[in-house]
Each structure stands twice: as structure tokens, then as C-alpha cells.
């Protein structure tokens, strides 16, 4: 049973969390005592280099029934439709692209077997860029668990709720929430009430962190108190268990004779967490002009160049639009950054037709894009009264690196080959008059 709500709001990203499933399981005052309580093993889990500055250092001490090395050797297995950056199996055209939602599986399919990569960028071995996957599942993972050594996983559910059972406890996730699982944490996904579908950003680069507020000051956007972490909740079960690892872009399996979810207590600042997107405090214009979409950034993975993200996770939630004498939808633009978008629910204001929940679009570096022709006509002739955007939740993964689609994505029947047609009726309005 999940107890995640009980620690809502207690800690920020750089503060330590502590939780124990048995009283006294967590050592006090020393991380690695000669003998741990309950005969447990101490094991440190690090998602940053040991010598990172204190405010950037991410590590957690776990106290578990057996250390993680109590397992067999890994052997390579088929990775199905999962790919990693750089994508070299096909060329990356600069065309705008859009896809309908991928269909739900008709045969029994768990999370691992239902993973499909749509695009990727950067270099998985060089720890830069990201992979963008779709997950499709209709059953639990039984005695299988999964972890990615290549990057942390940002889950963006679109259909169906699930439990994420992790080494550090359990979190229940539904559409409208996100889940982040750090690089290297084992987990399994258990659908709760039917099939599930959603998006995953596999971040190869620096761990995701809260976006800075800049001149906005101390409040607004995503607040630390709204991120929820799991309570320790261990399994003491024997029997064959299969661990699937994603490592250097490949899949490997290893077997062990017990559950890997045997952490009885933990303390640290690197652990799975969830966030309810409805708690994002939107800041927007109250005068004129359409601000840059960066004002909707929830989490960011910075690169070595300040202000130029490895990946930004941006949302377009319900909000008021009140800008005066302004073209309110996103403007026409060509970007230095590359953009991958998905739709969780409702309608996106710049694409009222053809972009449905579960769908995706890709607009790469310097490829022009913007509102479809009908949206332009509607927005330029609308009476600019205060307008509330309801029933909407779109997101964008924006990156400094070109996002290359996979061979599967380029050839998928869900790809809309006529996507450009939505701009086909853009008319010449120039009349030579000011």
C-alpha cells in the first residue's frame, strides 16, 4: 500500500528525506555502522559524482535485506523497439511531423514489452540529450523489474493509472501527474484499472531540477512542497526474479533468487518522486504580447551552457488569457531549440484539429511552425475579452540538440503524412497599406 501522501510537502530537492518501514531501521548519526539494525546491509546509491558541490550532490543511503550485488551475471536480450541517441538507423529530415496516438495492445503486454522509442538526441554514452518513448501496457510485470543506467525516467501518463513499485517504496500515478525515477533505480509498473499509455523522457544528461524563477521572485511555477516521495515499503520474498537493465542503449537481463524491493529504510536526496501538474502556479501576461513558453517550465536538465537546456519539461495547463491587442496563440517561429510535443487531454490552442490526446508532434531546430491557418483566422478576428482555457494539458520537451525520429516513428501508420496541410490555407493579406 502506498503512503506517499504522508510526506507531501516536507522537503525540497536538496534536502534529505528519511523513511523507515520498521521502527529503528534507520541508523541515527552514522550512515554505515559496523552492524546495521535488523541485520540489514547499508548500500549507498549515488546519481552524481562523489565530489559534486553539496547543493548538486545526489545520493541516498539504503538499508536493505540483501545488497544489490546478490544477483547473477547479465546477458544481452532483444530490446524490441527501444532505441537510444544518437539515432543512426535513418536520416533525420527537417520536416514538421505529427503522429496520432499509438494503439493500445490487444495481447498481454507489460511495461517492458510495450516500450517504443519515437525519437532521441544527444549521445547516451556521452550522457547528453534524451530518448523519447511511448509506454503501452495492459498487465503487470510479475517477477520482472527494470532500471535504466542510461538516464533518469520522466513518466508523463496519458491514459490509465498505475502503481510504480520501486526500491524506495511505492507511488500511485494517474494522468495529470508526472513521475521521475532516478537513473539506476529498479522498479516495476502495475496497471490499476485497465490499459495504460503515456510518454517517457529518458534524460541522459544532468538530473532534472526545478526551473529558476528569475525576476518572478520567490513564488510561482512549481513549488518544492508539492513534490511527493515514497515511504520505505519492503518485500521479503524468495523465488526467481528477472532484472532487465538498459545499459549503453542495449537491454540486458540477470536473475536473482529474491525480490529487489527489499529496502527497509532509506535517507538521502535521490529517490523517485511524483508531482501533480494541477499544482503548477501559472504566471502569464496581464498586459500585451504572448510570452515565451519558458514561463511554463516545470523541470529542467541544464547543460554546461547557462540558459541552454539539455531538456526542459514545459506544460500548457488550464489558464486565463487576457493579453490586450495581441495575437494570443503561440506566434509563428523558427527556434534554436528543438521541440517535441504531446497532448495529455483536451485541445491545444495552436492546433485545434488533428492533435488529439496521445498524439505527438516534432518541430526541429530552425524548422518553421506555428498556429494552423484556421487558428490564425480565428485569433486575428476574435474579440479580446478575458478567456479561460479549460480541459487542456499539453506538454513540450525542448532541447538544445536536434531530435531525431526513429525508423519506427518515420514509418508508423500513425504518422500524419498530410500534417503540412493544416497550414495550406494561409493566405496573403498584404495590401501595401500601413
UniProtKB/TrEMBL annotation:
Cellular component aspect of the GO annotation: cytoplasm
Domain Homogentisate 1,2-dioxygenase N-terminal intervals: 11-277
Binding-site residues for homogentisate, renumbered to this chain: 348, 369
GO aspect biological process, one term: L-phenylalanine catabolic process
Homogentisate 1,2-dioxygenase C-terminal domain location: 278-430
Swiss-Prot/TrEMBL cofactor(s): Fe cation
Catalytic class of the enzyme: oxidoreductase
Classification via InterPro entries: HgmA_C, HgmA_N, Homogentis_dOase, RmlC-like_jellyroll, RmlC_Cupin_sf
Origin superkingdom: Bacteria
Keywords, ordered alphabetically: Dioxygenase, Iron, Metal-binding, Oxidoreductase, Phenylalanine catabolism, Tyrosine catabolism
GO molecular function: homogentisate 1,2-dioxygenase activity; metal ion binding
Keyword 4Fe-4S: no
Binding positions (Fe cation): 333, 339, 369
EC number(s) reported in the record: 1.13.11.5
Active site: 290
Family as reported in the entry's similarity comment: Belongs to the homogentisate dioxygenase family.
Listed name of the protein: Homogentisate 1,2-dioxygenase
Lineage, top ranks: Bacteria, Pseudomonadati, Pseudomonadota, Gammaproteobacteria, Alteromonadales
Amino acid at each position: 500500500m502506498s503512503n506517499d501522501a504522508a510526506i507531501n510537502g516536507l522537503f525540497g530537492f536538496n534536502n534529505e528525506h528519511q523513511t523507515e518501514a520498521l521502527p529503528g531501521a534507520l541508523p541515527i548519526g552514522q550512515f554505515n555502522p559496523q552492524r546495521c539494525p535488523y541485520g540489514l546491509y547499508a548500500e549507498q546509491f549515488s546519481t552524481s559524482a562523489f565530489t559534486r558541490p553539496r547543493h548538486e550532490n545526489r545520493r541516498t543511503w539504503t538499508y536493505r535485506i540483501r545488497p544489490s550485488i546478490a544477483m547473477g551475471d547479465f546477458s544481452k536480450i532483444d530490446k524490441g523497439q527501444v532505441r537510444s541517441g544518437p539515432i543512426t538507423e535513418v536520416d533525420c529530415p527537417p520536416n514538421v511531423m505529427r503522429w496520432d496516438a499509438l494503439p493500445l495492445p490487444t495481447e498481454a503486454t507489460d511495461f517492458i514489452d510495450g516500450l517504443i522509442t519515437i525519437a532521441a538526441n544527444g549521445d547516451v554514452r556521452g550522457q547528453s540529450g534524451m530518448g523519447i518513448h511511448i509506454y503501452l501496457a495492459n498487465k503487470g510485470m510479475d517477477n520482472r523489474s527494470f532500471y535504466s543506467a542510461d538516464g533518469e525516467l520522466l513518466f508523463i501518463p496519458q491514459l490509465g493509472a498505475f502503481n510504480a513499485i520501486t526500491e524506495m517504496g511505492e507511488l500511485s500515478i494517474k494522468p495529470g501527474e508526472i513521475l521521475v525515477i532516478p537513473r539506476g533505480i529498479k522498479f516495476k509498473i502495475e496497471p490499476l484499472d485497465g490499459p495504460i499509455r503515456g510518454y517517457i523522457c529518458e534524460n541522459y544528461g544532468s538530473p532534472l531540477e526545478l526551473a529558476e524563477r528569475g525576476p518572478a521572485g520567490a513564488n510561482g511555477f512549481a513549488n518544492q512542497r508539492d513534490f511527493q516521495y515514497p515511504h520505505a515499503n519492503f518485500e521479503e520474498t524468495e523465488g526467481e526474479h528477472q532484472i532487465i537493465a538498459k545499459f549503453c542503449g542495449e537491454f540486458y537481463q540477470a536473475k536473482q533468487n529474491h525480490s529487489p524491493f527489499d529496502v527497509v529504510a532509506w535517507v538521502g536526496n535521490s529517490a523517485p518522486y511524483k508531482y501533480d501538474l494541477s499544482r503548477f502556479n501559472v504566471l502569464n501576461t496581464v498586459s500585451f504580447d504572448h510570452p515565451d513558453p519558458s514561463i511554463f517550465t516545470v523541470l529542467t536538465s541544464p547543460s554546461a551552457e547557462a540558459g541552454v537546456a539539455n531538456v526542459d519539461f514545459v506544460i500548457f495547463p488550464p489558464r486565463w488569457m487576457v493579453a490586450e491587442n495581441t495575437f494570443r496563440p503561440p506566434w509563428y517561429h523558427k527556434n534554436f531549440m528543438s521541440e517535441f510535443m504531446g497532448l495529455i487531454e483536451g485541445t491545444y490552442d495552436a492546433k485545434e484539429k488533428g492533435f488529439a490526446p496521445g498524439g505527438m508532434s516534432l518541430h526541429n531546430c530552425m524548422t518553421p511552425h506555428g498556429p494552423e491557418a484556421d487558428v490564425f483566422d480565428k485569433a486575428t478576428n476574435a474579440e479580446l475579452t478575458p478567456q479561460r482555457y479549460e480541459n487542456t494539458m499539453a506538454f513540450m520537451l525542448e532541447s538544445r540538440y536536434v531530435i531525431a525520429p526513429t525508423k519506427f516513428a518515420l514509418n508508423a501508420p500513425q504518422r500524419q503524412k498530410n500534417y503540412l496541410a493544416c497550414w495550406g490555407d494561409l493566405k496573403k493579406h498584404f495590401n501595401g497599406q500601413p
